Amino acid sequence: ITTAQDICVKILRQKAFGTRDIAGLLAGSDPMNAIANLVAAYWNRMDQARLLHLLKGVFSIASMADLIHDIALAGAGTPALTNLFTGKTFIDAKQKLGDAKEKLGAIAIHSAVEAWLSKQDLIDEIPDSLGTGRVKTFQGMRVIVDDGMPHETVSGNEKYTSYVFAQGAVAFGEATVDQAIVGGIGSWRLEYDRQALAGESAMIMRRRMIHHIRGIKWLGGSMAADTPTNAELESASNWLRVYDVKQMRVIKFVHNIG
């Protein structure tokens, strides 16, 4: 037998948020407090977008073709039933994993796709564990709706990409880096800056993390700096699949909607 190991890359990201004193005087409230209240949502959006960059890069590898179910109409014309996301075509997509398909548990789709499935009465809603909300499911799978999901217009027809995941398909971990900044205020993770003469304040946030599709090895052949950009995460030259098809935990489904 042979062994293989997936390898991830450390991803570093930084974002600075700033405000001027005059903005607070005109607004009547502290703008930095408003920034602090919105910063978590900002990083959530960045994490979601990065995951899609990762998936695009990983599925551009030639060896990932056996995990792609592309039924979208390639040229002009009206999509037939076989080109559409339906209950039957989705079963064909799951079959890419063979008997390992039972571990699939979530699907990420565009809101237009969710609306199309709802028109077919294929989306179910069940109470969450707390009984305070509703969870959308499709064929027993959790439905994640995100308008950042890939879609494009081809010969007048909208073509959508959906991803089907099993538990543990994506590895994510973030380091807690709180060492002090020499001559600065705060830490490497959260630093503050003040330009008194200009009346400006800034908050600099830095993150060090892994964000990785399991079963794929990072090669880094075209990484220009010490950490990859989102564009480099999309490059097939930086990735190598090392897991057998049934050990993989994500499927790409490309389709049209009615």
Mean pLDDT across the residues is 91
Low-confidence stretches: none
Largest sheet: 8 strands, mixed
Portion in helices: 10-25%
Number of strands: 15
What does this structure look like?
By secondary structure, this protein is α+β, with helices and mostly antiparallel strands. Helix content is 22%, strand content 34%. It contains 5 helices and 15 strands. It has helices at 21-27, 31-58, 87-94, 111-119, 230-233; strands at 10-20, 68-70, 104-109, 124-127, 134-138, 141-145, 151-154, 157-166, 170-174, 185-186, 190-195, 200-213, 216-218, 239-241, 250-256. Strands 2, 3, 4, 5, 6, 7, 8 and 15 form an 8-stranded mixed β-sheet that branches. Strands 1, 9, 10, 11 and 12 form a 5-stranded antiparallel β-sheet that branches. The chain has a two-stranded antiparallel sheet with strand order 13-14. Strand 4 and strand 5 (134-138) form a beta hairpin. The termini are far apart. The mean pLDDT is 91.
Properties at a glance:
258 residues, alpha+beta, five-stranded antiparallel β-sheet, 15 strands
What topology does this entry show?
Blueprint: E1 10-20, H1 21-27, H2 31-58, E2 68-70, H3 87-94, E3 104-109, H4 111-119, E4 124-127, E5 134-138, E6 141-145, E7 151-154, E8 157-166, E9 170-174, E10 185-186, E11 190-195, E12 200-213, E13 216-218, H5 230-233, E14 239-241, E15 250-256
Précis, in short:
With 258 residues, the chain is of the alpha+beta class. It is 22% helix and 34% strand. The chain has helices at residues 21-27, 31-58, 87-94, 111-119, 230-233; strands at 10-20, 68-70, 104-109, 124-127, 134-138, 141-145, 151-154, 157-166, 170-174, 185-186, 190-195, 200-213, 216-218, 239-241, 250-256.
